[in-house]
Design brief:
This protein is an alpha/beta fold. The protein contains ten helices and twelve strands. Helix 1 (26-37) crosses helix 9 (249-264), helix 5 crosses helix 6 and helix 5 (111-122) crosses helix 9 (249-264). The protein starts with 11 loop residues before the first strand and ends with a helix.
Length: 283
C-alpha cells in the first residue's frame, strides 16, 4: 500500500533505487518526514537490475519524478550520471541523493553529514581536537571523510586490512586535515577518542583486529551498521569500557533528513523517527 500525503498541493514522486531494495527503511523514514512536515510526496522503493540504472533514472525523471535516494550498488554510477555535483559528493566519489530539476540531475552525498549530525547533535560527541580511528577504506569510509575532517579533529587514522588502500585514501584527503592510513598493525600507539567502523565486517559477524589498548578513558565507538542486537564491534567496545557505544540507525535517519531538506527545503525533526525505528527493530 502506498503512502500519499496530500495537503492541498500537487503530490511529488520520490524513490530509493538499489539492488537489493526490499529491506530499505527509506520509504518509512520519508513517509514519516512528509507527515511531520506536511509535504505532499509519494516515496517508493525501486528495485533496479544491474546494468539498468541509467535507464531507470531516465524513466523516473521522464514521468515527473522529483528526487531519488541511491543505495548499493549504484552510488558510484549515480556520481557519473548526474549533471552537477555538490562539493561533498565530488569529494566522496559517490552520490546517494539526486534532485531532478527539468533536464538537470543534481547529485549530493548526505552520508557524511548524517554521521556527523548523529555523533554531535544526537549523542553530544565532540570531534574537534579529538583523535579519530576510522576502520575501512571502501566507499562507506570515503563518503564520511570530508565531513569528519571539517570538524578539525587532532588526527584521523584510516585502518584497513589492505594497507595500501588506506594509505591511498588518506592521500586523497591529505589537503583536508591531519590524516594518515595503513593496516591494523600500523595503528598508532596512542589512545583514540572516537572509533568508527565503516567496514562490512559486522554483516558477517566478524570483528577487525583491534589492539586492547586502543581506547581513551572517555572513548566513543560507533558502528555504521545497525541491527536489533549489538554488532561484534559494539560488543568489543563495551568489553573495553567505551563510554558510548552506538550503531548507525541514527546516521540512516540523519542522512535521510538531509536528503529531504535538499529536495523540499524543509528540515524534518529526527529524534522521534529514530525512536520509532528503534522500537520496530527491537520487536
Amino acid at each position: 500500500m502506498k503512502d500519499i500525503f496530500d495537503f492541498g498541493k500537487k503530490i511529488d514522486d520520490y524513490a530509493v533505487m538499489g539492488n537489493p531494495i526490499s529491506h530499505s527503511k527509506s520509504p518509512s523514514i520519508h513517509t514519516l518526514f512528509a507527515e511531520q512536515t506536511q509535504q505532499s510526496i509519494l516515496y517508493t522503493a525501486i528495485h533496479v537490475d544491474l546494468g539498468g540504472f541509467k535507464q531507470a533514472v531516465g524513466n523516473f525523471a521522464a514521468t515527473g519524478g522529483k528526487g531519488l535516494n541511491i543505495t548499493v550498488p549504484f552510488k558510484q554510477e549515480a556520481w557519473e550520471l548526474v549533471t552537477e555535483r555538490s562539493e561533498r559528493a565530488e569529494r566522496a566519489g559517490a552520490v546517494n541523493t539526486i534532485k531532478i530539476e527539468d533536464d538537470k540531475l543534481f547529485g549530493d552525498n548526505t552520508d557524511g553529514v548524517g554521521l556527523v549530525n548523529d555523533l554531535m547533535i544526537n549523542h553530544s560527541i565532540e570531534l574537534t581536537g579529538k583523535n579519530i580511528l576510522l576502520m575501512g577504506a571502501g566507499g562507506a569510509a570515503r563518503g564520511v571523510l570530508n565531513p569528519l575532517l571539517k570538524q578539525n579533529p587532532s588526527s584521523l587514522f584510516i585502518a584497513n586490512r589492505t594497507p595500501d588502500k588506506a594509505k591511498d585514501l588518506a592521500s586523497d584527503f591529505s589537503d583536508a586535515g591531519n590524516i594518515s592510513g595503513g593496516g591494523y598493525e600500523h595503528i598508532p600507539d596512542e589512545k583514540f577518542d572516537v572509533v568508527i567502523n565503516a567496514t562490512a565486517a559486522s554483516l558477517q559477524g566478524e570483528l577487525p583486529p583491534l589492539p586492547d589498548t586502543l581506547l581513551n578513558d572517555n572513548a566513543s565507538c560507533y558502528d555504521m551498521m545497525y541491527a536489533a542486537k549489538p554488532t561484534p564491534f559494539m560488543l568489543w567496545a563495551t568489553e573495553h569500557n567505551a563510554e558510548k557505544v552506538l550503531d548507525g540507525l541514527g546516521m540512516l535517519v540523519e542522512q535521510a533528513a538531509e536528503s529531504f531538506y535538499i529536495w523540499r527545503d524543509v528540515k524534518p525533526e529526527t529524534k522521534t523517527v529514530i525512536e520509532k525505528l528503534r522500537k520496530e527493530l527491537e520487536l
